[in-house]
Amino acid sequence: MDLSILGFGCMRLPTGQDGRIDEDHAARMLRYAVDNGVNYVDTAYPYHNAESEPFLGRALQGGYREKVNLATKLPSWLINSRQDMDRYLDEQLKRLQTDHIDFYLVHGLMRPFWDKLRGLGVAEFLDSALDDGRIKHAGFSFHDELPVFREIVDCYDWTFCQIQYNFMDEQYQAGTEGLKYAAGKGLGVVVMEPLRGGMLSREIPAVSDVWKKEKAKARRSLSEWALRWVWSHPEVTIVLSGMSSCQQMVENVNYASRAVAGPLPQEELDLFEQARSEYEKRIKVPCTGCRYCMPCESGVSIPECFEMYNSGCIFDSPQIAGLNYSIALGGFLDGRPAFASLCQQCGQCREKCPQKIDIPERLKEVAAYFGR
């Protein structure tokens, strides 16, 4: 299909003082994007406290629905039966004021969700929804490790998948290997978080200086550099950007119009390596994620605590990292929080750590940084 390389993500729409979507502003953004060639619009059942889908249903009236490929997602964590799958899809069709979803994803797959949904008959559900025309293409979005990704890719005749990918996350979750694996199986690949939730757009002096060097002949914003890196991968079909203002919308449309297919020149790849090195110098805790410290008797998810802490420090983004920390470790899956503040200072993890990290002391830093 002729899909735009820039997709409009509807998770970070502009909001008013009441925290709800500023519909006038968001609708102007959406229609500007579509009028300027963006034809892939991505939302999900829970975005903006479940208001994103109904907003799109209203904003795509007046002929705009026919101009876009609409993507939304089955809320995996809310599914407890085969009947739930049909019920949520039918509700989403009503919320979006449409008779079909062009690209329907099973949302946020991780091992627990995948095992449960597979047992409940998600393959049969997708086959049925494709057969009756409620969805046109089936895919999944992913948040786990590479072996799980490979398994999911191989378990169904997917059209596409959605993964997190940017120049700082080449080895994160599915990563480059997963990107190539999916594309090699014939799947389209939609990339989310190309700017790491906006973190790669933040001005960090040492990093910004890399791009300002004389040999960086092209003068681009931090956002354009990061997007250009993702677009340079031939396996990538669409890059989603969750834009929050008209200015961001206009800038990203311009970046997409200037994007050139094919690999980056070596001198630009060298700049990305230098930028990555500057970011990595800001790492606070040298945790490798080996998980020898786990399980923690107090319920702390130790590697994830350090990952979120490092992320906030690397990108000088405590607010964004704090939101990710709350979502990832707040007990979303099992009702059991795993925050650093739960540490009882037993010291067992310290003895197991190959990096000789004083884990209990460093968890105090994490708890102080995030306030829990």
Molecular structure report:
Helix 7 packs parallel to helix 8, helix 13 packs antiparallel against helix 14 and helix 13 packs across helix 16. The protein is α/β, with parallel strands linked by helices and 372 residues long. An eight-stranded parallel barrel has the order 1-2-3-4-5-6-7-8, surrounded by six helices. The protein has 16 helices and eight strands. Strand 5, helix 7 and strand 6 form a beta-alpha-beta unit.
- Report the order of strands and helices: EHEHHEHEHHEHEHEHHEHHHHHH
How many individual helices? 16
Low-confidence stretches: none
Overall outline: globular
% residues in beta strands: 5-15%
**Rg to the nearest angstrom?**
21 Å
Q: What is the oligomeric state here?
A: single chain
Task: Name a few traits of the molecule.
372 residues; alpha/beta; 8-stranded parallel β-barrel; 16 helices; 8 strands; globular
Summarize the topology.
Blueprint: E1 6-9, H1 23-35, E2 40-42, H2 47-50, H3 52-59, E3 69-74, H4 82-95, E4 101-109, H5 111-120, H6 122-131, E5 135-142, H7 146-154, E6 160-164, H8 175-184, E7 188-192, H9 205-211, H10 222-231, E8 238-241, H11 246-258, H12 266-280, H13 302-314, H14 318-329, H15 348-352, H16 359-370
Helix pairs in contact: 1-11, 7-8, 9-12, 13-14, 13-16
